[in-house]
Amino acid sequence: MKADFKSGFVTLIGRPNVGKSTLMNRLIGQKIAITSKKPQTTRNRIRTVYTDEERGQIVFLDTPGIHKAKNKLGEFMVNIAESSIRGVDLILWLVEPSTFIGAGEKHIIDVLKKANVPVILCINKTDTVKHDSILEFIDTYRKEYDFEEIVPLSAKTGENCDVLIDQIFKYLPYGDMFYDPDTITDEPERAIVAELIREKSLHTLDEEIPHGIAVAIDSFKYRENNKGPICDIDATIICEKYSHKGIIIGKGGSMLKKIGSNARYEIERLLDCKVNLQLWVKVKKDWRDSDYLIKNYGYREDD
Description:
Elements: E1 6-14, H1 20-28, E2 46-52, E3 56-62, H2 72-83, E4 90-95, H3 103-115, E5 119-123, H4 134-142, E6 149-152, H5 161-170, H6 189-204, E7 214-225, E8 228-239, H7 242-249, H8 254-271, E9 274-283, H9 291-296
Parallel strand pairs: 1-3, 1-4, 4-5, 5-6, 8-9
Antiparallel strand pairs: 2-3, 7-8
Helix pairs in contact: 6-8
């Protein structure tokens, strides 16, 4: 290993829907974290790995958006996000381009002040504003906190993402790789598949339903046929109300077929083989307020 090789852990934090998962996927060059325009898409801490064999290795921690929790799942998500800033080498705080700093941002600033970790402010979605207004946004945030760097960027278009990588390496300690250079994530395939199914549900369903769904993988098996490997997956979409179950299934099963078809396309790209996906729908009333069910559906703080 080179003497000037660097490696470290970098947490992405921010309010819901600021583009953390989109940025992480962009930086590592592969889709691991699911994305949608709906807030609170990310529920768990997701770890991905960026390796530059000349410079170093960055282990990213994508976290749920920090928000005011309304149930036990929300409390879990906020705890995951706020605990992820401890023991890391650098924090990336993502914000949207704005001259208004609200209560949510002020809460995050208070959390950052207690962390004693270097912070890079990432002003995301610069593709949505005039470039000559970006200096105003920088000035607004600079008055609130002493950032190591401020990087305006667009996770959607990739603008300035290479600059961000350069800045991250400046603040990482020297040291060996934590992961094999070919590693992109340590997330199990089953967990990523469940999230892809949830993502397609988020994209397809009405506004109020996605917050109340989870996805459980019931069966995940590879087999061979004369055309190559096939993965047979049985999964259940869990919702909180019987009225939601009917909407998720749709007339004649049309909605469930659409979710399954969209998810199967993404899963086949992920697994690089044919996928036979069977989806079911179950009602578990108020599961987001059940410690047992929250853990059962894969949301565990100790992971």
